[in-house]
Design brief:
- Helix content is 69%, strand content 7%.
- The chain is mostly helical.
- It has 2 domains: 194 residues, Cytochrome p450 (Orthogonal Bundle), CATH 1.10.630; 36 residues, no CATH class.
- The protein has a two-stranded antiparallel sheet. The protein has a two-stranded antiparallel ribbon with strand order 2-3.
- GO terms for molecular function: heme binding; iron ion binding; monooxygenase activity; oxidoreductase activity, acting on paired donors, with incorporation or reduction of molecular oxygen.
- InterPro entries: Cyt_P450_B, Cyt_P450_sf.
- Keywords: Heme, Iron, Metal-binding, Monooxygenase, Oxidoreductase.
- This is Putative cytochrome P-450 monooxygenase.
């Protein structure tokens, strides 16, 4: 929060904000096309394991500037899932700690100033360290965070959307016949079948909502899935 959070937020916006992301458009498209062509050559594949999970992995590792092998990529998806369980009850939380340790160890060993590909997010992050904008500890935490935050929810969104198209072939026909509807279809996939079902937050001050006062320091539950189906 506050002063501790601001440098990392600036770093993230510098590398992954709308303007920065536009610079990676060609790399993203090429990584996506390459994966799709590989899958088409196979004719049959698992839409979740081979496409939904591998697409964000291929794309984001290209942008990040690292090249993990296929087994490392599968392992990272497991780490990403476990990281989201860090907000779980104690028993499940304890089970996630080894994965979080492995993720940070991998980042320390594989996303270094020496290994970062020129023009990549990793290279830009380490340049920020050299300028003194962030510390090396903050840099590693941010880079590791990219791996987890960029994989789990994106893979889930792709998988859920594919499943909904399979269950609603008439909607798939609309998208197939008119590619201009693709952006809207992806947003609708996120709304209709939310990957992040809920998160909790703690209030920093008293908040009044619908004539109810939520005291400062209260843990609140935010149901994204319910909100996305709320007709209001």
């Amino acid at each position: 929060d506050g002063a501790d959070h601001l440098p990392m937020r600036k770093l993230m916006m510098q590398d992954l904000g709308p303007k920065a992301a536009a610079a990676y458009k060609e790399k993203i498209q090429q990584a996506a096309v390459t994966l799709v062509e590989e899958l088409l050559d196979r004719r049959e594949f698992d839409a979740v394991l081979d496409f939904a999970q591998m697409m964000p992995m291929r794309v984001f590792m290209e942008v990040l500037g690292v090249e993990p092998d296929i087994e490392q990529r599968r392992t990272m998806l497991h780490w990403a899932t476990d990281t989201y369980n860090c907000a779980a009850p104690d028993g499940l939380y304890d089970d996630t700690l080894p994965s979080m340790d492995k993720l940070y160890s991998w980042a320390l060993e594989n996303i270094t100033p020496e290994t970062a590909r020129e023009g990549s997010v990793a290279a830009s992050t380490w340049e920020s360290v050299e300028r003194g904008d962030v510390t090396d500890v903050q840099a590693v935490a941010t880079l590791a965070g990219y791996v987890t935050a960029g994989l789990d929810t994106t893979a889930g969104t792709l998988g859920n959307t594919i499943a909904q198209f399979a269950a609603n072939p008439d909607q798939w026909a609309i998208v197939r016949d008119d590619p201009k509807t693709i952006p809207g279809a992806i947003l609708e996939g996120i709304r209709f079948d939310s990957v992040a079902q809920w998160f909790t937050r703690v209030t920093t001050r008293d908040v009044e909502y619908d004539d109810i006062v939520i005291p400062a320091g209260s843990r609140t539950y935010h149901s994204y899935a319910a909100a996305n189906r709320d007709e209001r």
